Amino acid sequence: MFKEYLQKLQDQHLLRRLRTIASSTGPTVRLDGHTVILLSSNNYLGLATHPAVIEAAVEATRQYGAGSGASRLVCGTLTPHEELETALARFKGTDAALTFAAGYLANISAVPALIGKDGLILADRLCHASLIDGCRLSGATFRVYHHRDMNHLEQLLTRRLPGKPTLIVTDGIFSMDGDIAPMRDIALLAERYGAAVYVDDAHGTGILGETGRGTLEHCDVETRIPYHMGTLSKAIGSTGGYLAGSAEFVAYLVNTCRAFTYTTAPTPAAAAAATAALRVIRQEPERRARLWQNRHHLAQGLTSLGFRLAASESPILPVIVGDPDRAMSLAHTLLTLGVYAPAIRPPTVPASTSRIRFTITADHTDEHIDQALAALAQAGRALNMI
Questions:
Q1: Is 314 a residue of the active site?
Q2: pLDDT tens-place string over residues 95-121
Q3: Where exactly does CATH 3.40.640.10 map onto the chain?
Q4: Is 203 among the residues known to form the active site?
Q5: Looking at the domain that runs over 51-283, which CATH code has it been given?
Q6: What is the model's pTM?
Q7: Which of 140, 159, 335, 378 could form a disulfide linkage to 119, CB 3.0–4.6 angstroms apart?
Q8: Which of 234, 238, 329, 368 is flagged as catalytic?
Q9: Which residues in this protein are found as N6-(pyridoxal phosphate)lysine (predicted)?
Q10: Does the domain formed by 12-41+285-382 have CATH 3.90.1150.10?
Q11: How many degrees, rounded to 5, is the angle at CA 176 between CA 53 and CA 184?
């Protein structure tokens, strides 16, 4: 069974294999004995390798050990966890926050805790897989609206049964296209029709908004959206997920989220690293400014070369290729030219939209970007893509 399935994937150019990077995930990495420019990391602000973040993780490991020992409700809550949740609540401007071992766990646990089989979930078509899984696990009636299509969302809201509990679910920044959810319009519809809104801001946290608080700050709807979720593994440079909100909301999650109750707590190192990263975000706003400068540089270069870009508004810059085999060929050619950016293929993205999903960070230099664009020009011409 396994062999036949894998062969089928191979024949369709959809087989995935792991590749080992022998270095930290900086702007360049060591891969197969060579130093290459990395253009596929979500380490947007470069905080995974920031000296203060690393030192905080090392010190927490020395003081508290490598593991947390148990789930948070048994004996796994340690001082670094409490310090992180206090820092997150302050950062997000909420009463409280709760952390999880992974953003995926937060979504598949929190959504079912918020709505059950008597409710209705309306989710954007391009929501992250963890959100979709959480929606299905809830047992609620589940409907998908066209991507960022507020007319379709309103149609679904008007068709629901009167008084039916309703939760609108969306990403803040969509991870494969890089565009931003129309949060003001979503908030307006939610208020008009008496629905609640749950936002996964994994890719917006740390990079959007005047102070980096994320998509809700960027769209000026922080006080209008009750359920804020994000991750610690992207711009924050550590690992884990969180939800932020009122003290009652967080207490409710502690008592209802199965992935919180039955999962060992995040490591002390991960929690301390994330707390340190939040301090850096506050103290070094120039990192965010540099990220957006780099994003403009790369986006302008890709467009000038003639590549087909998705409608991105973020440091995620997908070049749409279409055919998975051609996407693999482009990724392979780029790697031979010193740029590592793997092909993204179905089922991660819809059929016929295979792509190279370029991501830029604050730590990339102008020289890195210019070298990458030169490689893209050479690869694109060699493969008749530009």
A1: no
A2: 999 999 999 999 999 999 999 999 999
A3: 51-283
A4: yes
A5: 3.40.640.10
A6: 0.94
A7: 140
A8: 234
A9: 234
A10: yes
A11: 85
